[in-house]
């Protein structure tokens, strides 16, 4: 179509010229030389052309906006990868939506721009560079302020010299001829070998930079693999070798991209290989860990890879692994903690290492001291002061020392004597300090729990109120971890605390600081009478394993909020594990009399509860061992319906006569074996009833 009229605006100058050249004929009304006359008048043609260019301008603006949004999402995802090592599903979905929207707008812009003869708008990274400059300015301002104040211990680097060593890298491509970086030409083999022999003797920034220039001038472009192999093993005799080797790899990676990536990946792979034999090559592992830390500071090994190494070492916290952790912390711990992208994750890692250090007290004291020093060096001095625990009174520190450090099998009597000497009457807080120290010691020293119960038993005649505070605190803490709404019984961080509290309550019962009614109450907290009823919410929601496997929806689901998980679901065996642990400690005391009969009633409810669980192999073996020791002739029901019928029969009899119901529970548990209540099993009943009274 011929578009006649005045010259278009400068923005669309190319489109107007193309349209005029293609459609304007000498006659003024014909198009393309085919003699087809345009049906639009010249004013209408100019109006249509203006509308098309205006619409294309709008599409171009949308394309630029879509491109900017896509780049912004990509930058955010890159930061998330550096900080956490993975992307969330929401972030990945947002990136996919932005990418598809960008592709649709780009296709539309191309379809309109080609007929109009207008080029696509520039999609250069100018805006992204401006945004990155702003972010880098903010980061550099915050870090440089800390770096300049090196005496305070903050910032990425301790002083300006260290900062220059890690940040001021020469650009070889800017100072050397371009022909040295092409793939053509031969290398000076003898000169390269002579230069690489000087590599172990480099000890300063200038020597490393001069060696990098010499290697490049002698034809490194065609002999890169020998250099990469040489960079993998810094000599053990030179303390500065790892940092100098890492700087050389970083300088050369600016001109030869693959040098830095190969060195980083091969050194990380060597770390994993050495981890397979932790006790054999400990010196090599320490040198490798120090080298990995230096490569992290030059950006040749990513922070997520280092956090994976920390996690692997913390999983098996032995003396050898502790040495590797210390080497990593000394090399790059402070850098990762001060970097904005990895600060949060490194801070959490330091907290986890501190917690592991407090638990593993059997490790060599010198290694533990090195770990404490390495953790302290990672955090600035002002942060350590802010996090410092409040100063405790000397007497409270002494009580903590007795129960946390001094109490052993050979010093239990000495600890009791020292506790009796405390000023219980003059200082009312001593009882509270003792109870808090005993409970905290029980949660971190599992092997010392029987000794803590011994101390409480010997201290009871003299300080009854303080001992009762310990007993009440243990039972209350156990009740909270059982009945707390929304608790995840399979959370790893809570498993040790639950096991310690159950063991402590069992040992207190063994030393007659609790009676059997308290133990039965705890067992009913763990497995209530309502447990095993499909869809009941009082006090927890249960779904039988067979019902969920069949796809049935529990009747209690409408009572829950949207998205709220079922508590104590089929795969959660936390309550069952706690009940078995408690029975392992106190089960031997429930072998006769009234306590035996009352435990039989609970075992009937437990038999129904087991059908609500998908029991794992380890729990199945633990259940078999516990029940075999507790009731050797016990026979569990064959089906869920049979277990429900037994519970219904028991509850009917218990409603009329509790004693007959307890006797019936024993018959139900031994019915298949043809065993009944014997006179021997009833021995001591009066004495047990007297104890209950």
Give a written overview of the molecule.
The chain is mostly helical and 693 residues long. Helices cover 65% and strands 1% of the residues. It has 31 helices and two strands. It has helices at 13-23, 42-84, 89-116, 126-148, 160-167, 172-175, 189-197, 205-217, 224-231, 241-255, 257-275, 282-297, 303-315, 319-338, 343-359, 365-378, 381-387, 394-406, 412-420, 429-444, 449-459, 464-483, 492-510, 516-526, 545-549, 574-586, 593-609, 617-630, 640-656, 658-669, 685-692, and strands at 30-31, 36-37. β1 and β2 form a beta hairpin. The longest helix has 43 residues, at 42-84. It is extended, with a radius of gyration of 38 Å. The relative contact order is 0.04.
Oligomer: single chain
Helix segment tally: 31
Calculate Rg over CA atoms: 38 Å
- Arithmetic mean pLDDT: 77
In whole angstroms, how far apart are the ends?
108 Å
Low-confidence spans: pLDDT under 50, at least 5 residues? Answer: 1-35, 132-154, 485-490, 534-565, 672-693
Level of helix content? 55-70%
Kindly state the number of beta strands.
2
Main sheet overview? 2 strands, antiparallel
Report the structural category.
mainly alpha
Principal-axes shape call: extended
Give the neighbour order of strands across the main sheet: 1-2
Estimate the strand proportion. Answer: under 5%
């Amino acid at each position: 179509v011929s578009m006649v009229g005045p010259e278009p605006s400068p923005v669309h100058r190319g489109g107007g010229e193309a349209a005029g050249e293609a459609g304007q004929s000498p006659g003024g009304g014909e198009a393309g030389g085919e003699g087809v006359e345009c049906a639009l008048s010249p004013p209408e043609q100019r109006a249509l052309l203006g509308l098309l260019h205006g619409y294309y301008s709008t599409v171009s603006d949308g394309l630029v906006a879509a491109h900017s949004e896509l780049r912004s999402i990509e930058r955010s995802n890159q930061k998330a990868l550096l900080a956490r090592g993975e992307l969330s599903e929401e972030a990945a979905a947002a990136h996919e939506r932005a990418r598809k929207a960008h592709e649709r707008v780009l296709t539309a812009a191309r379809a309109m721009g080609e007929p109009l003869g207008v080029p696509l708008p520039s999609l250069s990274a100018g805006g992204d560079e401006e945004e990155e400059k702003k972010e880098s300015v903010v980061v550099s301002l915050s870090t440089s302020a800390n770096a300049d104040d090196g005496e305070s211990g903050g910032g990425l680097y301790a002083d300006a010299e260290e900062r220059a060593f890690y940040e001021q890298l020469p650009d070889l491509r800017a100072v050397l001829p371009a022909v040295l970086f092409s793939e053509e030409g031969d290398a000076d083999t003898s000169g390269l070998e002579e230069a690489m022999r000087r590599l172990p003797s480099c000890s300063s920034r200038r020597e490393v930079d001069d060696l990098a220039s010499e290697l490049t001038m002698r034809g490194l472009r065609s002999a890169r693999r020998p250099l990469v192999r040489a960079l993998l093993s810094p000599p053990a005799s030179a303390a500065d070798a790892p940092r100098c080797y890492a700087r050389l790899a970083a300088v050369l990676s600016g001109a030869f991209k693959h040098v830095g990536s190969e060195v980083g990946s091969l050194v990380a792979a060597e770390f994993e290989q050495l981890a397979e034999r932790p006790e054999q090559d400990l010196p090599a592992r320490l040198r490798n860990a120090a080298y990995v830390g230096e490569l992290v500071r030059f950006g040749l090994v990513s922070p997520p890879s280092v956090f994976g190494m920390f996690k692997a070492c913390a999983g098996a916290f032995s003396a050898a692994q502790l040495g590797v952790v210390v080497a990593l912390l000394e090399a790059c711990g402070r850098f990762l903690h001060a970097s904005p992208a990895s600060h949060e994750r490194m801070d959490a890692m330091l907290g986890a290492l501190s917690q592991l250090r407090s638990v593993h007290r059997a490790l060599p004291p010198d290694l533990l001291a090195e770990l404490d020093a390495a953790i302290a060096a990672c955090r600035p001095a002002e942060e350590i002061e802010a996090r410092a625990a409040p100063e405790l009174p000397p007497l409270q520190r002494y009580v903590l020392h007795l129960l946390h450090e001094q109490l052993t099998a050979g010093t239990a009597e000495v600890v009791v004597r020292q506790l009796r000497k405390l000023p219980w009457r003059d200082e009312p807080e001593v009882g509270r300090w003792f109870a808090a120290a005993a409970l905290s010691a029980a949660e971190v020293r599992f092997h010392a729990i029987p000794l803590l119960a011994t101390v409480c038993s010997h201290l009871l005649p003299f300080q009854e109120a303080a001992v009762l505070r310990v007993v009440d605190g243990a039972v209350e803490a156990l009740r909270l971890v059982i009945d707390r709404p929304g608790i995840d019984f399979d959370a790893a961080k809570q498993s040790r605390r639950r096991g310690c509290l159950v063991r402590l309550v069992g040992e207190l019962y063994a030393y007659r600081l609790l009676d059997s009614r308290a133990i039965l109450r705890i067992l009913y907290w763990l497995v209530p009478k309502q447990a095993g009823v499909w869809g009941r919410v009082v006090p927890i929601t249960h779904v039988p394993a067979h019902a969920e496997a069949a796809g049935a929806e529990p009747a209690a689901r409408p009572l829950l909020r949207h998205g709220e998980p079922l508590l104590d679901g089929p795969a959660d065996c936390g309550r069952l594990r706690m009940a078995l642990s408690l029975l392992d400690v106190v089960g031997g005391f429930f072998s006769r009399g009234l306590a035996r009969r009352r435990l039989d009633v609970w075992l009937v409810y437990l038999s129904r509860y087991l059908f609500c669980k998908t029991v794992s192999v380890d729990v199945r073996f633990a259940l078999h061992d516990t029940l075999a020791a507790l009731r050797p002739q016990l026979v569990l029901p064959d089906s869920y319906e049979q277990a429900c019928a037994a519970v219904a029969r028991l509850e009917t009899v218990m409603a009329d006569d509790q004693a007959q119901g307890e006797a019936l529970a024993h018959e139900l548990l031994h019915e298949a074996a043809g065993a009944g209540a014997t006179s021997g099993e009833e021995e001591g009943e009066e004495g047990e009833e007297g104890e209950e009274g």
